[in-house]
Amino acid sequence: MRIQSPANPKVKALAALKERKERERAGLFLVEGRREVERALRAGLRLETLLLGPKATPEDRALAGQAPVLEFSQEAMERVSVRENPPPVIGVFRLPRRTLEEARLPQNPLVLVLLGLEKPGNLGAILRSADGAGVDLVLVAKGVDLYSPQVIRNSTGVVFSLPVFPVAEGEVAHFLEEKGLLLVAATPRGEKVYWEEDYKKGVAFLLGAEDEGLSQAWLARAGVRVRIPMRGVADSLNVSVSAALLLYEALRQREGG
């Protein structure tokens, strides 16, 4: 089927998936770009429809497999996409329904817990660092939607290959307590500089919202509170930078660096 007008009802319905409320109602979400669609498919996510723009290639079309294909004009693609220059391929995928019961941890796992993050770009960047550092599990509670188009874009699609779970805050606390991990809270008021702690055994890093950080309840729950030293006038780093520093320090220690 070829659709030209951005006012077409089907285009409007797909464009609405840019909003979290509509994604949750429809059980669908958008994946923009060939690389991201390929990573979603490799992760076993269910492709419902493939949207192809005027510049789509035969290789792009082959991504559809047995799924229906809709050919959109450039204007229609622009209506659906969150990007200024939409890619020639956008996948419409079924939202995965994952539960924490599916999580499997190795001995001495490296876990990342994100509580109340509000900026999709930060979450996406953190997931890229988590992928690079070999994190065994990422838990995302409150805040931004894991399947926001901006999160998918900024993570370059590794959100699909990572063991990452959107969970309720209470579920996080119960899970961490059950696993007996060392809880390490990142806070400007930490008693230790982050490289002074030992991360070779099972550890869960806790990071909070960009503006307020972790709540007092989570700070009290943590076994260790660490800080990142600041030498300039700024009093904090971007949360994605903080996450990268912590995760790669854990990786350095575990690899004998």
Helix content: 25-40%
Shape designation: elongated
Count of alpha/pi helices: 10
H-E order: EHHEHEHEHEEHEHEHEEEHEH
Which class best fits the helix and strand makeup?
A: alpha/beta
Terminal residue distance: 56 Å
**Strand content bin:** 15-25%
Low-confidence stretches: none
Rg for CA atoms: 20 Å
Average residue-wise pLDDT: 94
Account of the 3D structure:
With 257 residues, the protein is α/β, with parallel strands linked by helices. It has 10 helices and 12 strands. The strands form 2 sheets. A 7-stranded parallel β-sheet has the order 8-7-6-11-9-12-10. A 5-stranded mixed β-sheet has the order 1-4-3-5-2. The longest helix is centred in the last third of the chain and has 16 residues, at 239-254. The model has no long low-confidence stretch (mean pLDDT 94).
Structural topology:
Blueprint: E1 2-3, H1 9-15, H2 20-26, E2 28-32, H3 34-42, E3 47-52, H4 58-62, E4 69-72, H5 74-80, E5 89-94, E6 110-115, H6 120-133, E7 137-141, H7 149-154, E8 164-167, H8 169-179, E9 182-186, E10 192-193, E11 203-207, H9 216-221, E12 224-227, H10 239-254
Parallel strand pairs: 1-4, 3-4, 6-7, 6-11, 7-8, 9-11, 9-12, 10-12
Antiparallel strand pairs: 2-5, 3-5
